[in-house]
Amino acid sequence: MSLRSRLMAVGLIGVASALAAGGLIMDLVLTRALDRSVEGAARAAAVEVAALTTQGRLPEPLPATGAQVVQVLDGTGGVLAASVGGDRLTPLVTPEERGRLVAGQAVTVPGTRAALGGSLRVVGVRARSAEGGEVLVIAGRPTDDIDVSRSVVRILLVVLLPLALVVMAVVAWRIIGAVLRPVEDLRAGAERIGADADTGREAGRSRLAVPPTRDEIAALATTLNGMLDRLAESGARQRAFVADSAHELRSPLASLRTQLEVAARLGEDGVAPSELLPEVERLARLVEDLLTLARAGEGAAPRRQPVRVGEVLREAAARVGSARVPVRVADVDHDLTALASPDDLERVLTNLVDNGVRHARTEVVLAGVAEDGPGDERVRITVTDDGAGIPPDQRERVFDRFARLDEARARDSGGTGLGLSIARALVHRGGGQIAMQDADPGLRVVVHLPRSAALPDSGA
User: Fold this and answer.
1) What is the domain class of 216-296 according to CATH?
2) What global pTM score does this model have?
3) Could you confirm whether domain 305-450 is CATH 3.30.530.20?
């Protein structure tokens, strides 16, 4: 569950528990209050009749208001007097209930005993008649109004409490969403920065927005921006170091190469020039590769333009025409056009073809086809060799800088270990993707690039 959902669940459980407890307490309090009100009215009527009994002035019938039922019972439970609604022959209560009334308790009896609907709440008051005998004055009051009121309240609680809970849930969902929106903005901003690899751009252009508040969210955004600044500064220093190192190494390497070439041409004694020239060439390639990686890591998007895939593949094959294994181009649609930087695509194909030639047994095959992906159109370029291949668990590691497998170290002649790293950096910078697949036998490197509209023929 998301943080928003968890907060909603905890809040709703707490509110629902509070509302349920409040509704239960309200029902109990209301019921007790209504019962006391009815018992109070019945007891007042019984006290009044008891006073008349003591004075020997009992009227016939006994005074009662509304649907009240009043009876005066003798010591054996017989009816001495009754109100208009009371039975003059049958007492309203049973002997067991009469005992509870004598003890001061109130009882509830069916209304059918007095020809009424519902129930009667009955109380009793002990008194002495004018003749000195002990009597019990009972008064019963209908509870229809109490029952109706209680039913209405319970219905309202059952209906209104869930409705109130739903309304509160909607309001709380929106409020929690508004509170967490700055956090989501920070997350989206951090994801964008990480996806675009733009922490090294100039200050202010790729930073998280700081809310115009002085709360914890604003403090978090400020702290994250400080962290991004430090990361950008560190990345800039690293790239500057690589670039500066590459530039500084160019001059002595060029001087060494020139001197060695001159020495080799003039035929100086010894074999040092012929032995050192390949190593100088290797150092020069390493410097160029480091410089390319530094420039690719600057984050600046290259200028992309439509490029005919078939022409680029044939040029890449022609550059290695004298390689130890043949490099051929499969049938490619003449109108197949990719949207890419020509220089970047040329460097990517050069690195991939060189890598395939070093490891192929008999040939390297270049191909390009159009693909319709979900929501986009792409060009699929493949470089396939029939060599030993790469285990699946190593196919991601070989894209790391200076990462070469043991077999590659044994057979590689003059490689720097940066070719695949450069290829991936340039492909990603141009908005594409690169991956490795089984060729059965061998290895297939797959490059996906955005497709462009077909270019007109040069002679058109």
Assistant:
1) mainly alpha
2) 0.47
3) no
